From TrEMBL:
SUPFAM superfamilies: SAICAR synthase-like (SSF56104). This is Phosphatidylinositol-4-phosphate 5-kinase, type I, beta b. Gene3D superfamilies: 2-Layer Sandwich, Phosphatidylinositol Phosphate Kinase II Beta. Keywords: ATP-binding, Cytoplasm, Kinase, Nucleotide-binding, Transferase.
Length: 451
């Protein structure tokens, strides 16, 4: 494996050292990185085995990040968002790429300079990015959704790699200039942070991937996990999903299982302001059908189980918070520019302190996901026929403005609530804040995306 001193000292992955790096990586792969290639048992995606896909991802990212460090830093230009770089990695190897046990493939990198700039914006150093994605085997995660996407997690909990459809990748390319202009101005956001967009081509098949921030750390046990949209049509976890060790519940399940999550007034206001701003950004991009991924860690359960928040559900590799700036839930809603070190502690692991109506202490982890859905013809048609059969206001797919308003109303009244001090400290009373009741307040200018 790569030397662990890479985390403590700068690693110069310029062109002159790419070949040496790949020789080290090739040895690592021969010793087991990426898992065994057992076609009789292994999961496949587009006729590609999981081990071949993971190995190709790590080989491709290893090459492109190493090659990119030799290019000088400069301001990002508009044309940088539309650059596509490509490298061929034959199984027998080449002058700069190692031999490998997978089929020949071509690895494409979209907007490499632009993504480098934005990784730097969030404090991700090239050697840390490379170490996280390449040094250890990727961990495959289950996907409770209907998209059929594969999800991989880096062993240090920092990054998620997700396979996306061609239309989603194209939409992200069009979205990049305006979307990252917003992130540059508002890094404290619950919107997903995309750190790279790639494509693997092999045997006439294209597999597109995005690298993004990880919302739910493995190092904290999530006693409850939800995918919330603010709709009710088919918004209950299936029986198969409920049988899993860590199921992902939905909107109707949340209403059955909780009477709201209670925050102090300042935290509630910061959270709802962040959600409102983010929803207005998504509306300006004509995006809908997104979700709030919500993880709930019950501190009282953890104490009864004899563990600490940082030890409850992980592998012990990350006793402290994430290194990436603005990546934790607490950092994402802070509005006063507090230092990251002050926000992420061993007690909270970056989660947001909250309580149940019974005064149980909680840590909340959350982020907006699945934003690569544009309300265009297909989605308009889907909403139209569903509205003929079901209550049109209850279905998930809806025009962006209506979707954002319904989403905010559900979050501000059903999911998140504000605690008020009273003469009975053992009781929680709530106030539905003005935020969420008047989601029409313009917070961002509308951005037009070229089609």
């Amino acid at each position: 494996m790569l030397g662990k001193d890479c985390l403590n000292a700068p690693c110069d992955f310029g062109l002159h050292s790419v070949a040496l790096f790949f020789r080290q990586m090739s040895t690592t792969m021969e010793n087991g990185m990426g898992g065994s290639w057992n076609t009789s048992r292994e999961k496949t995606y587009k006729k590609t085995t999981s081990s071949a896909l993971k190995g190709s991802i790590q080989l491709g990212i290893g090459y492109t990040v190493g090659n990119l460090t030799s290019k000088p830093d400069r301001d990002v230009l508009m044309q940088d968002f539309y650059v596509v770089e490509s490298v061929f990695l034959p199984s027998e190897g080449s002058n700069l790429t190692p031999a490998h046990h997978y089929p020949d493939f071509r690895f494409k990198t979209y907007a490499p300079l632009a993504f480098r700039y934005f990784r730097d914006l969030f404090g991700i150093k090239p050697d840390d990015y490379l170490y996280s994605l390449v040094n250890e085997p990727l961990i495959e995660l289950s996907n409770p959704g209907a998209s059929g996407s594969l999800f991989y997690l880096t062993s240090d909990d920092e990054f998620i790699i997700k396979t996306v459809q061609h239309k989603e990748a194209k939409f992200l390319q069009r979205l990049l200039p305006g979307y990252y202009m917003n992130l540059n101005q508002n890094p404290r956001t619950l919107l997903p942070k995309f750190y790279g967009l790639y494509c693997i081509q092999s045997g006439g098949i294209n597999i597109r991937l995005v690298v993004m921030n990880n919302v739910l750390p493995r190092s904290v046990k999530m006693h409850y996990k939800y995918d919330l949209k603010g709709s009710t049509y088919k918004r209950r976890a299936s029986r198969k999903e409920r049988e899993k060790a860590c199921p992902t519940y939905k909107d109707l399940d949340f209403q059955d299982m909780h009477e709201g999550l209670y925050f102090d007034a300042e935290t509630y206001n910061n959270l709802m302001k962040t959600l409102q701003r983010d929803c207005r950004v998504l509306e300006s991009f004509k995006i809908m059908d997104y979700s709030l991924l919500l993880g709930v860690h019950v501190l009282d359960h953890s104490q009864r189980e004899g563990g600490e928040p940082g030890q409850a559900g992980g592998d012990g590799r990350r006793p402290v918070g994430q290194r990436v700036l603005y990546s934790t839930a607490m950092e994402s809603i802070q509005g006063d520019g507090k230092a990251a070190e002050a926000l992420t502690t061993d007690d909270t692991m970056g989660g947001i302190p909250a309580k149940t109506h019974k005064e149980e202490k909680l840590l909340i982890f959350l982020g907006i996901i699945d934003i690569l859905q544009s309300y265009r013809f297909i989605k308009k048609l889907e909403h139209s026929w569903k509205a003929l059969v079901y209550d049109g206001d209850s279905v998930s797919v809806h025009r962006p403005g209506f979707y954002a308003n319904r989403f905010l109303k559900f979050m501000s009244t059903r999911v998140f609530r504000k605690t008020q001090r009273n003469t009975h400290p053992h009781l929680c009373t709530t106030e539905v804040d003005k935020i969420g009741q008047d989601p029409q307040t313009p917070l961002v200018e509308e951005v037009t995306i070229p089609y």
